[in-house]
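Exercise: predict the fold of this chain.
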Amino acid sequence: MIRILGLSFHLYGLLIGLAMWLAFEISLSFGKKLRVEKETIEEVFLWAVVPGIVGARLYHVIDWWQKLYRYDPVRALFLWEGGLGIFGGILGGVVGLWVYWQRKRLSMSFLRLLDVTVLGVPLAQAIGRWG
């Protein structure tokens, strides 16, 4: 637990938030070069991050079910205890992007949308590992 200006933060959560923000900024920068509207990237961000977190947690819970969560399934909801799996996060984020792309019927291809959004993922993963 870290205290900054009288506020308490878990280092893990702080680094995950920093990682998401930097990935978002990288997507904005790259999207500008590809002439993708800023508003589209802002909308896409939520559609990728929320399912990404759900997918990451689900992957972790499935992976650790026999060892940890089978005996206390309610702990699967305790995100503050850590436990996010990158493979589930990537899959969840891609599913969220796919749903967004289908709902909005964007003129750009799905692969182009992935190009814009995925560029910051390796940096976000590296920062998240520090937590």
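Check your answer against the key: The longest strand covers residues 2-4.
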